[in-house]
Write a structure and sequence with these properties.
The structure holds two protein chains of two kinds.
Chain A (H helix, E strand, L loop, with lengths): L3 E4 L2 E5 L4 E7 L4 E9 L6 E6 L5 E4 L2 E6 L4 E6 L8 E9 L2 E6 L3 E6 L1
Parallel strand pairs in A: 2-11
Antiparallel strand pairs in A: 1-3, 3-8, 4-5, 4-9, 6-7, 7-8, 9-10, 9-11
Chain B lengths: L4 E3 L2 E4 L5 E6 L6 E7 L5 E8 L14 E5 L5 E5 L8 E8 L8 E2 L3 E5 L1
The chains are: A mainly beta, B mainly beta.
Chain lengths: 112, 114
């Protein structure tokens, strides 16, 4: 049973464009939703995270939008740059249990 | 400061052999996690250690997999009688306790079972 569904599997965007990655979850007990960025040969690194008490969180060019009623959250990368080319994973965890449930990842390619 | 380190970075083993993968967490981090990353499958939770509490082993795929954490620091993931389907990147992460705080990941160990 896949608890966090992520789409698309891959995404190609032109430099300066907006990259949008979507995730949907099933477990309503999830209360922490991070996004991780992974470059080839490296471990994932936290990019930005949100809790369900807010609908949006912005850090620089990265924004998480959260829709609690729809059980969906998304990552928006504004003014996408070639250096943003990486694999992005959404994840979720449940209060008191810190293990993360990950989506299957989105490979983002930003063309110059 | 130093991040999470893992060794070896690559391991090739024959089917049926046992392997040990090592993780050194960030100093002072009491929580330690093991995940498995298979091609196209995202990251799969394996096991979680928090301080002196009993580990959460709910993600271990079979009894061939085990892990221990000595002295609340270094952890070893052991896979016995390896199978080809065990081939994956094994990632270790650590975090402060009382979270969910950010999990800091190591670079992983790429395991290939031939």
């Amino acid at each position: 049973q896949q608890q966090v569904k992520q789409s698309p599997q891959s995404l190609i965007v032109q430099k300066g464009g907006i990259s949008i990655i979507n995730c949907a979850y099933e477990n309503t007990a999830f209360d922490y939703f991070p996004w991780y960025q992974q470059f080839p040969g490296k471990g994932p690194a936290l990019l930005i995270a949100i809790r369900p008490d807010v609908s949006e969180k912005k850090e620089g060019r990265f924004t998480i939008s959260f829709n609690k009623s729809a059980k969906q959250f998304s990552l928006h990368i504004m003014d996408s740059q070639p250096g943003d080319s990486a694999t992005y994973f959404c994840a979720a965890s449940q209060g008191g249990s810190e293990k993360l449930v990950f989506g299957k990842g989105t490979k983002l390619t930003v063309n110059p | 400061g130093a991040g999470v380190s893992q060794s070896p970075s690559n391991k090739v083993t024959e089917k049926g052999k046992d392997v040990e993968l090592r993780c050194d967490p960030i100093s002072g981090h009491t929580a330690l996690y093991w995940y498995r990353q298979s091609l196209g499958q995202g990251l799969e939770f394996l096991i979680y250690f928090q301080g002196n509490s009993a580990p959460d082993k709910s993600g271990l795929p079979s009894d061939r997999f085990s892990a221990e954490r000595t002295g609340g620091s270094v952890s070893t993931l052991t896979i016995q009688r390896t199978q080809q389907e065990d081939s994956a990147v094994y990632l270790c992460a650590s975090s402060r306790s009382g979270g969910p705080y950010e999990q800091y990941f190591g670079p992983g160990t790429r395991l290939t079972v031939t």
